[in-house]
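Typical record is below.
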Amino acid sequence: MTNWIKSNWPGWLSGIVIFLALGVFIGNKTETAAQIGDFFAGFSAALAFIWLIAGFMQQRKELVLQRQELALQREALEQQREELNRIGKYAALDQISKILKEFEDSLPKKNIQGITKIEDLNQIFMPEFAKAVKILEPSAHIDISKTYLEWAKIEGVCKEFLSAIMSVVILHNESSEEADLKFLEGEDDAEYIYFNYDSIKNIRPLRNYIGSAHFLATQITLCTPGLKKMELANIETIEKIDPKLINREGVDKLRAEIAEIDRIKKKSE
């Protein structure tokens, strides 16, 4: 009962004031408008004062709680700092591995049909690529821009996954104590993962993702010629509509890359 009174004192004190005010009002039988106005003004001021004090006390209580919370946070940060010093680079690797988990959690929000988890990327890549690559066939009568736009969403999220994988690989390379680690160069994330799989497959934060990443990197690497030609076909479609929308230097570079790919292919035949 005592605790209730202490915690609810503004309410019961306001009730007492209201009860006394009603008694005074009824007992005096106040009749004029001026007297009624003065009475309610004084009554309201008393209630306002009570709740003003209550507000100050609540703020004081909240400040005390905030100080206690800050003290706990400082203690937690100090413990975390000691833990980071103890486990060093591995703490950083565990921290960056959260990027991969966050990426996986974001997949359903991307609203790409058929993709809600990382495993879906491998299952959908080749079937959708087979559909999209038909834009390179003149007789297919396909809306190139529309088809490529849909494909670009899939290609983009796949490459976003490989980019997250590479973030972990790069951090590992920078913090590794093994000076003799050797890695092959790659033109992009897909090639790097494809060619260096044996070197990166045992990186601890990648253990739940590297299998899917390597399989996807393999598909993208093998499809690179088609991917570049699809990109060029889309650019040329846009160029016909408005040449000003095209980056001429970028287009020339892409055409040169495709020509080199075709040259190497013919040489190997």
Observations:
- Residues 2-87 form one domain.
- The longest helix spans residues 33-87.
- The chain has eleven helices and no strands.
- The chain has a mean pLDDT of 75.
